[in-house]
C-alpha cells in the first residue's frame, strides 16, 4: 500500500512498462494484454451466440447481441451509403471493443492491482513496484493506435473507391476546385495542405476525445477511493451509475465518427 495519497495516485496511474529505459520503444504490457483479452472475449461471445442462435427460443444473450448488431447496422445504413462488406463489421468491432475497454473502469479501483501485487510478491518481486492500469482506453497510446488504424482505413477506402489516381487528384483539387488549369496548379498546394490538415485532425480528435473522458473518469474513481468508506459509497455509487452512460456514449461516439469519416472517403465530390 502507498504511504500517502500522492503515492497512491501515482501508483495507480503508472503503467506496467516492459522497459522504462527504452522510451518510445517500450510497451505498456497492461494496456496491450488487457486489450487483447477483451478482444478475444468479444470475438468469443459473438461466435458462441452465432453457433447457438435459435429462432424459436432466443436467449437473453442472443437478444442482446442481436439488438447491438441491429443498432450498429441501422446507424451505418443511415450514414454510409456506399456498398461495403467491411463498414458494418468494422463499426460493430469498434463499438463493442471500445465499450469493453471503457467498462474496465467499473471494476473496483484496487481489485486487479491488488491481485497483480500479490502475484508479483509470490514471484519474488517488490509489490510496491508492481503496476497495473486496467483501463486501456485511458492510455493515450491505445486511443492513438485505434485512431491511426481508422485513418489507414480512410485512406484504404478512398483508394479502393476512387483508385490511387483519383485519390491523389482529390488531394490536389479539393476543397478548392478550378476549371482553369493554371489556377488549378496554383491552388494545388493549398488544397493539399487543407487535405492533410483534415486527414490528420481526424485521428487526433478521435483519440483525444476518448482518452480525455476515460482518463478523467479513472482519476475520479481513484480520488473517491481515497475517501473514508462511507463517503466512497455516497459519492462512488452515483458516479458509477453516471459513468455507465459515459463509457457507452464514448464507444458510440467513436464508432459513429469512424463511419462519418469513412463515408466521404468513398464519395466523389
Automatic annotation (TrEMBL):
<dbReference type="InterPro" id="IPR045082">
    <property type="entry name" value="ATP_syn_F0_a_bact/chloroplast"/>
</dbReference>
<keyword id="KW-0138">CF(0)</keyword>
<keyword id="KW-0812">Transmembrane</keyword>
<feature type="transmembrane region" description="Helical">
    <location>
        <begin position="32"/>
        <end position="50"/>
    </location>
</feature>
<keyword id="KW-0375">Hydrogen ion transport</keyword>
<keyword id="KW-0472">Membrane</keyword>
<dbReference type="GO" id="GO:0005886">
    <property type="term" value="C:plasma membrane"/>
</dbReference>
<dbReference type="GO" id="GO:0046933">
    <property type="term" value="F:proton-transporting ATP synthase activity, rotational mechanism"/>
</dbReference>
<protein>
    <recommendedName>
        <fullName>ATP synthase subunit a</fullName>
    </recommendedName>
</protein>
<feature type="transmembrane region" description="Helical">
    <location>
        <begin position="86"/>
        <end position="104"/>
    </location>
</feature>
<keyword id="KW-0406">Ion transport</keyword>
<comment type="function">
    <text>Key component of the proton channel; it plays a direct role in the translocation of protons across the membrane.</text>
</comment>
<feature type="transmembrane region" description="Helical">
    <location>
        <begin position="142"/>
        <end position="161"/>
    </location>
</feature>
<keyword id="KW-1133">Transmembrane helix</keyword>
<feature type="transmembrane region" description="Helical">
    <location>
        <begin position="239"/>
        <end position="262"/>
    </location>
</feature>
<comment type="similarity">
    <text>Belongs to the ATPase A chain family.</text>
</comment>
<dbReference type="GO" id="GO:0045259">
    <property type="term" value="C:proton-transporting ATP synthase complex"/>
</dbReference>
<dbReference type="InterPro" id="IPR035908">
    <property type="entry name" value="F0_ATP_A_sf"/>
</dbReference>
<keyword id="KW-0813">Transport</keyword>
<dbReference type="InterPro" id="IPR023011">
    <property type="entry name" value="ATP_synth_F0_asu_AS"/>
</dbReference>
<dbReference type="InterPro" id="IPR000568">
    <property type="entry name" value="ATP_synth_F0_asu"/>
</dbReference>
<dbReference type="GO" id="GO:0042777">
    <property type="term" value="P:proton motive force-driven plasma membrane ATP synthesis"/>
</dbReference>
<feature type="transmembrane region" description="Helical">
    <location>
        <begin position="182"/>
        <end position="201"/>
    </location>
</feature>
<feature type="transmembrane region" description="Helical">
    <location>
        <begin position="207"/>
        <end position="227"/>
    </location>
</feature>
<keyword id="KW-1003">Cell membrane</keyword>
<keyword id="KW-0066">ATP synthesis</keyword>
<dbReference type="Pfam" id="PF00119">
    <property type="entry name" value="ATP-synt_A"/>
</dbReference>
Amino acid at each position: 500500500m502507498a504511504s500517502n495519497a500522492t503515492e497512491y495516485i501515482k501508483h495507480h496511474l503508472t503503467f506496467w512498462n516492459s522497459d522504462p529505459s527504452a522510451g518510445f520503444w517500450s510497451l505498456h504490457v497492461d494496456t496491450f494484454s488487457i486489450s487483447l483479452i477483451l478482444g478475444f472475449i468479444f470475438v468469443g461471445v459473438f461466435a458462441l451466440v452465432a453457433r447457438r442462435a435459435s429462432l424459436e427460443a432466443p436467449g437473453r444473450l442472443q437478444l442482446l447481441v442481436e439488438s447491438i448488431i441491429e443498432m450498429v447496422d441501422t446507424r451505418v445504413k443511415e450514414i454510409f451509403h456506399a456498398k461495403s462488406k467491411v463498414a458494418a463489421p468494422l463499426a460493430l468491432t469498434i463499438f463493442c471493443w471500445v465499450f469493453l475497454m471503457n467498462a474496465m473502469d467499473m471494476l473496483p479501483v484496487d481489485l486487479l492491482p491488488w491481485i497483480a501485487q500479490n502475484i508479483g510478491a509470490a514471484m519474488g518481486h517488490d509489490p510496491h513496484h508492481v503496476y497495473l492500469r486496467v483501463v486501456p482506453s485511458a492510455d493515450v497510446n491505445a486511443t492513438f493506435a485505434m485512431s491511426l488504424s481508422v485513418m489507414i482505413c480512410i485512406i484504404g477506402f478512398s483508394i479502393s473507391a476512387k483508385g490511387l489516381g483519383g485519390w491523389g487528384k482529390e488531394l490536389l483539387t479539393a476543397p478548392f476546385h478550378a476549371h482553369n488549369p493554371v489556377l488549378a496548379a496554383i491552388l494545388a498546394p493549398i488544397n493539399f495542405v487543407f487535405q492533410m490538415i483534415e486527414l490528420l485532425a481526424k485521428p487526433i480528435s478521435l483519440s483525444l476525445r476518448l482518452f480525455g473522458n476515460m482518463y478523467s473518469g479513472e482519476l475520479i474513481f481513484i480520488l473517491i477511493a481515497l475517501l473514508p468508506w462511507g463517503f466512497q459509497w455516497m459519492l462512488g455509487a452515483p458516479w458509477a451509475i453516471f459513468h455507465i452512460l459515459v463509457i457507452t456514449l464514448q464507444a458510440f461516439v467513436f464508432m459513429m465518427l469512424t463511419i462519418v469519416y469513412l463515408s466521404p472517403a468513398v464519395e466523389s465530390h
